[in-house]
Design goal:
Strand content: over 45%
Shape: globular
Distance between the termini: 26 Å
Oligomer: single chain
Order of helices and strands: EHEEEEEEEE
Largest sheet: 7 strands, antiparallel
């Protein structure tokens, strides 16, 4: 777990910086984005995460199915402020297609809550789209925080911004 990054790199800060520099500034040429470095040192928090859950097909008809996944989880971190117990629930509307190279198209809705009882940690909901091919998948998700890290001394600023997650997963 990497907290309080203040360097412009390939992570979230770098992605935001280059999105503004290469795209947003072209659309709004008179608008500038300032990235202030922080005096706070970077913090690396090792953790172990244990999850238990189940997956259930709620509906299946032809090439369409609705799948529910639910997890209870426990995170044990080297700093108590990131330790917690939580729950995650996911609904996946899946359209299968055997005729084309893309095998399935998934629309996902997810809710997540994690707390360490003393300090409320995090809650969000997320919408996503996943394209599944034979050897890889690609996804785009929109993540909206509900609450973040209240009273956690290691988090100095909670922006509560909508996040865009994207990725590419290869299957071996």
């Amino acid at each position: 777990m990497y907290i309080q990054g203040n360097r412009i790199s390939i992570g979230a800060v770098g992605e935001k910086y280059y999105l503004h520099k290469w795209i947003i500034e072209k659309i709004y040429p008179n608008r500038y984005w300032i990235y202030n470095s922080s005096e706070i040192k970077d913090i690396f928090v090792p953790y172990l995460e244990l999850k238990y859950g189940y997956r259930r097909v709620l509906f299946k008809k032809g090439q369409t199915s609705l799948i529910s996944s639910n997890n209870l989880e426990c995170r044990i971190a080297s700093k108590f402020n990131f330790t917690g117990i939580g729950a995650k629930s996911n609904l996946d509307l899946r359209f299968e297609n055997d005729r084309f190279k893309m095998h399935t198209l998934d629309f996902e809705l997810e809710g997540f809550y994690l707390t360490n009882i003393i300090q409320y940690n995090i809650a969000y909901y997320q919408l996503g789209l996943r394209l599944n091919f034979k050897i890889f998948s690609t996804y785009l998700q929109i993540n909206k925080p509900i609450k973040k890290y209240l009273n956690n001394p290691y988090i100095k600023y909670d922006d509560m911004e909508t996040l865009f997650n994207y990725g590419l997963v290869f299957y071996l």
